[in-house]
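Q: I'm teaching a short session on how sequence maps to structure, and I want students to see two examples side by side rather than one. Could you give me a first protein with its sequence written out and its structure tokens following it? Keep the formatting plain so it prints cleanly on a handout.
A: Of course. Example one:
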Amino acid sequence: MMPSYHIYKAAGTTKSCPTADTSIFIGEEVPDLVREHGLEALAETFEADAVTLEQTLYESLPGGTYDRLLARMLTRKATHFVVSHGPDRNDAVKKLLAACEHALSDGFREADKMTWASDLVVELETAIAAGKEVVSP
């Protein structure tokens, strides 16, 4: 059985302009475009899917959910920087953290934002100091 998740949608701007219910179906594997059309075709497919997904989520999700999703996605990618960037990893992670904090600047109340950012910084710095992979909050 295919998993299904319930996510709240954004409130419409007015009663006459409600946010439409949205369904996203993720159910097919990416076709082997490289063999027939080259890497550029695969890159174009990834870009088109990313643009469609991001636009759909932007138009459908409440701002707080969208902001937190962005921050979580950026945080998850911090692991990539910690593992693969060697001596420069601290700088890479700090840049990523700055991007997360910027992404959150409009989504959280000030107290929530500071708590989340502080916890994230402590978690990342502790993991980096210990030479461990970063775990997303």
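Q: Perfect. Now a second example for contrast.
A: Example two:
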Amino acid sequence: MRLIADMVAFTVNEVPSWNPTNICSYHLQEAGATPVQELAYALSTAIAVLDEVKQAGQVSDDDFEKVVGRISFFVNAGVRFVEETCKMRAFVRLWEEITAERYGVRDEKMRRFRYGVQVNSLGLTEEQPENNVQRIVLEMLGVTLSRDARARSIQLPAWNEALGLPRPWDQQWSLRLQQVLANVVDNAVKYSPDGGEITVALEAREGSARLIVSDLGIGVLASQREHIFHRFFRADPQLTRGVGGTGLGLYICRELIEAMGGRIWAEPNEPRGTRIVIDLPAAPST
């Protein structure tokens, strides 16, 4: 612990752009730990590191906020969607409480919960490769569906799991669906009011699978539903609350989905908002 504290103290001023500490709890779930145990281990470890740094006296009170702000976490994401979503929201709220009350951090940015995620590879199976895509998608949802807990810049090492799948077809599906789902859900969150409900549904159909992302946001004008998938298209900023973007996200999603032989479109949601619908062909038999 002393070695970690010395490294953290050195990097605060000497290497200010480097993140010196990443609290990793992701292997615990693979070893059988519950989400509660993973959460408790990660937060108690972070507290131990910060307490050691503070007690060592090598960092001034003014710089200690920087130390807190550069603590990051690396967690696991399993297939139990409700538990994983609750776990991530608990992480965010408890970290906010710990940093504000225990360490007196005033800067909101320094109290943010920063984390990366790895999908639980134990959920993947060579015997049923057609199920691996759905498992990876489900394991992503916990970090994409919560406005407070979602990773704003998602870096999921699920590509490593994807490339370990038995067939190239499975590999491409899982890689591209991660990218598409992250983009579509991110749009739904950005254009929804605070506390707005977002629903993700996966339906098995004859010869295909249908993924539906629904929100209760500002909606899309009927005249623009096709255009939102065009390159560089941007809706009227007065209607989108000034939310930024490049106008490339949904265009890339359509290109990827169509490359897999599928379709993607927008339709109105009831009573308000938008539904993004994705139809993909069933897995080939070989």
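Q: What should students look for in example two?
A: Point them to this: The chain is about 40% helix and 15% strand. Also worth mentioning: The CA atoms of residues 82 and 142 lie 8 Å apart.
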